[in-house]
Every structure is written in C-alpha cells, then in structure tokens.
Design a protein that fits this description.
With 126 residues, the chain is an alpha/beta fold. Strands 2-1-3-4-5 form a 5-stranded parallel β-sheet, with helices on both faces. It is globular.
C-alpha cells in the first residue's frame, strides 16, 4: 500500500508540482491544502502517513498546523521552506528541506523517514 501524504503549501503551482512529483515516486497524495485550518481538517479526514508542510503560510502557519495535528495523533512530517534557518530557530529538531529543492533530495528525506517508521522501536526492558 502506498504511503499517504498530505501536502500543505500555499503556493498553488508548488503544491501541484509537489503532488505530481510525489505521485511519480509512487506515493498517494491524499490532499493538498493551502491554509492552517484546512491542513488540520484534512489531516483529520485523510489520516496521512506523512505530511510535507510549508512552514510559513499566507493564512496561518504550517508549524502551528503540525503542532495541532500531532496533539491528537503523531504524524511524521517534513517542513519545506525558503528560510530553513528560521524554521530551525523555532523547532531545532525539525526536518527541513530548503526551497527550491531537487526531487532527489526530497526523495532521500522521505525514504529516511519511511525507514525510521519501519524500524522496530526499543521498548526497553520487559
């Protein structure tokens, strides 16, 4: 089954290009949203396996949308931004891909996240 990805991107052309790129990689894009509120609603509706999120939206914040979504259910996510340093200043541990990005860079980041999701978790002593 293909990984279901929610895209949060307020630039229409970038959102469409990103969706086509991800579908070309074999992933299922469950929704492309442009606002914080729509992203939160889509995450509830679509239950994505992964989110690719523009950190700074014209209507709301991708960072705030991720925080809201992950309060109810942790969802792995990658931020995309033209200003990765600003995202890391707010969220030092964030995974950020700098815009403009190449397809191979995004593919490697997604694959690393997929590998992390599939890795057995250390449950500690039983």
């Amino acid at each position: 089954m293909a990984l279901r990805i929610l895209i949060v991107e307020d630039d229409f052309m970038i959102g469409i290009h990103l969706a086509e790129m991800l579908e070309g990689m074999g992933y299922e894009v469950c929704s492309v949203e442009a606002t914080e509120a729509d992203a939160v609603a889509a995450a509830e509706r679509c239950r994505p396996d992964l989110m690719i999120v523009d950190a700074w939206l014209r209507d709301g914040s991708g960072i705030a949308a991720v925080a809201t979504i992950c309060r109810s259910r942790p969802v792995p996510h990658v931020f995309v931004s033209g200003d990765a340093a600003s995202v890391r200043a707010v969220l030092p541990a964030a995974i950020v891909v700098e815009k403009p990005f190449r397809e191979d860079v995004l593919a490697r980041v997604i694959q690393r996240m997929v590998d992390d999701m599939a890795a057995p978790r250390d449950r500690g002593p039983d």
